[in-house]
Structure to design on (536 residues):
């Protein structure tokens, strides 16, 4: 009996050790979704890569499921994809690249143990990449860099290394090195194995033609060309003498980023990257909670909600809460404790996702992402755990919106659908909704981080709730939460460029046209305490 228990614990530990949960981040159009598709090809999850921007074709990226994403060729929601490869169980969190949806990306990064940063070889480090990289640094997680689009004209790889180090403040270690670029791209040199892997484009099929040749092979110059051969020899000598040494501990804490070159679209260097990445990155990491760090190998089940998505399946009008399992083993129909709701629940239909495709699962482990049906009881940041425990994981911050609009339904008979739609979309974290105190829900004020979110709101209300709306842009740029809740807002001395609103948790807030109005409010109301972020 004891031997059986030891065997079970060993298997259980190995299952968790073989899990990898990572987010893919990039500036828009760097090729993030294409790279995700190639990973799925190698994992056997899909048989043929579609065109991400193929708006005229029936094939769209499997990680883009919302119709507006297919129309625009962008990702506006975070997808969760799981597959197996080379003995590993891989959970990919594919995040929106568009800056208007950066808040969803920030939340998704809370659920990841490492990040893959995709950089366009011709553009280098771009604005959105900088923002996302800073969030990764705050998480103290490993960051891996894939420099993409080497099949097109690219910048000098040494210049790209220098820019990453200068712009992002992280050391670089090239694991492989490109041979040429654009039409002259011949493949990559693997520094560890000291061999060249020469690729041939193959229109997205899973198997690629690969020729592995050692650097000392006399036929190498004929394979890649005399000029490429001489350049490569000089580059390798310089790298071996001047680049940073590989240090796994530095990688673990985001101080050193392993760098890989390739082309996701034509499959150059993708599988070697995936193979090395899985060996270098970490298994599920401990998580901070109100009771200290929670060990992923603990037998106490725990998870937190990092994303809520309504109407993933229009036919069912459902709502899914995405949970990152932090410790223990999840079993179908097990009883869990919802800490914030202070109640026990039974999760009977746990699902794993492949964009819109779903599969009911029997079990899941630390590192896995599961989706559970949400009847409206979960909020982003909620903790779920084994009954008898009451710890909470660190909260996920709510970011201050920067754009505001007054929104009302055009058909007054559809008030119920309007209220339901705006509230459900707000609960997902895609928008924030406010109203003026003592007013009804005929009109709401919507706040968003980026203006494209207004388009998505309008589209989703029409297509998912059958409600057409009118949006009136408001001049406000800043929002502050009133910290001292006992304060009577009617007594405040405020300028004409300030509006008092409430969120739907009952918190009082102030909207300001500019910073001058904020200073006015603070100077003329000595008892007023304002905060830039929600602490709920």
């Amino acid at each position: 009996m004891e031997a059986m228990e030891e065997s079970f614990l060993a298997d259980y530990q190995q299952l968790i050790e073989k899990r990898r949960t990572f987010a893919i981040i990039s500036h828009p159009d760097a090729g993030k979704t294409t790279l995700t598709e190639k990973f799925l090809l190698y994992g056997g999850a899909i048989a043929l890569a579609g065109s991400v921007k193929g708006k005229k074709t029936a094939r769209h990226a499997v990680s883009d499921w919302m119709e507006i994403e297919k129309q625009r060729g962008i990702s506006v929601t975070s997808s969760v994809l799981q597959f197996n490869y080379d003995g590993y169980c891989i959970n990919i969190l594919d995040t929106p690249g568009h800056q208007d949806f950066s808040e969803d990306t920030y939340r998704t990064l809370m659920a990841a143990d490492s990040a893959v940063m995709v950089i366009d070889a011709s553009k280098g480090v771009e604005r959105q990449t900088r923002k996302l990289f800073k969030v990764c640094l705050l998480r103290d997680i490993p960051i891996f860099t894939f420099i993409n689009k080497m099949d097109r004209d690219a910048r000098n790889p040494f210049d790209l290394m220098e820019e990453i180090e200068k712009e992002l403040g992280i050391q670089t270690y090239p694991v492989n090195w490109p041979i040429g670029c654009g039409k002259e791209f011949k493949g990559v040199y693997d520094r560890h194995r000291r061999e060249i892997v020469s690729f041939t484009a193959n229109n997205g099929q899973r198997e690629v033609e690969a020729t592995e040749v050692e650097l000392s092979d006399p036929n190498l110059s004929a394979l890649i060309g005399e000029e490429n051969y001489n350049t490569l020899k000089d580059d390798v000598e310089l790298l071996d003498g001047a680049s940073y040494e590989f240090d796994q501990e530095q990688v673990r804490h985001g101080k050193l980023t392993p760098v890989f070159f390739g082309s996701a679209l034509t499959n150059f260097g993708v599988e070697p990257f995936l193979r090395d990445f899985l060996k270098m990155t970490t298994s599920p990491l401990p998580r901070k909670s109100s009771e200290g760090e929670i060990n992923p190998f603990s037998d106490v089940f725990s998870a937190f909600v990092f994303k809520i998505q309504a109407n993933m399946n229009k036919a069912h009008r459902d709502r899914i809460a995405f949970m990152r399992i932090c410790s223990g083993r999840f079993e179908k129909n097990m009883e869990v404790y919802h800490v914030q709701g202070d109640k026990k629940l039974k999760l009977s239909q746990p699902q794993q996702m492949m964009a819109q495709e779903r599969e009911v699962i029997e079990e899941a482990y630390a590192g896995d992402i599961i989706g559970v049906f949400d009847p409206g009881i979960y909020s982003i940041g909620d903790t779920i755990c084994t009954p008898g425990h009451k710890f909470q994981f660190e909260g996920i911050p709510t970011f201050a919106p920067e754009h505001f609009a007054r929104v009302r339904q055009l058909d007054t008979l559809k008030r119920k659908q309007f209220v339901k739609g705006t509230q459900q979309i707000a609960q997902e974290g895609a928008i924030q909704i406010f109203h003026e105190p003592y007013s009804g829900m005929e009109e709401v004020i919507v706040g968003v981080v980026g203006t494209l979110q207004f388009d998505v709101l309008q589209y989703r209300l029409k297509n998912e709730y059958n409600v057409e709306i009118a949006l009136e842009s408001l001049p406000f740029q800043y929002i502050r939460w009133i910290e001292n809740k006992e304060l009577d807002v009617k007594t405040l001395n405020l300028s004409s460029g300030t509006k008092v609103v409430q969120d739907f948790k009952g918190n009082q807030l102030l909207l300001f046209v500019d910073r001058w109005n904020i200073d006015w409010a603070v100077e003329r109301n000595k008892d007023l305490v304002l905060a830039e972020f929600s602490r709920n």
Summary: Residues 21 and 91 are 5 Å apart (CA to CA). The radius of gyration is 25 Å. The first helix runs from residue 2 to 17.
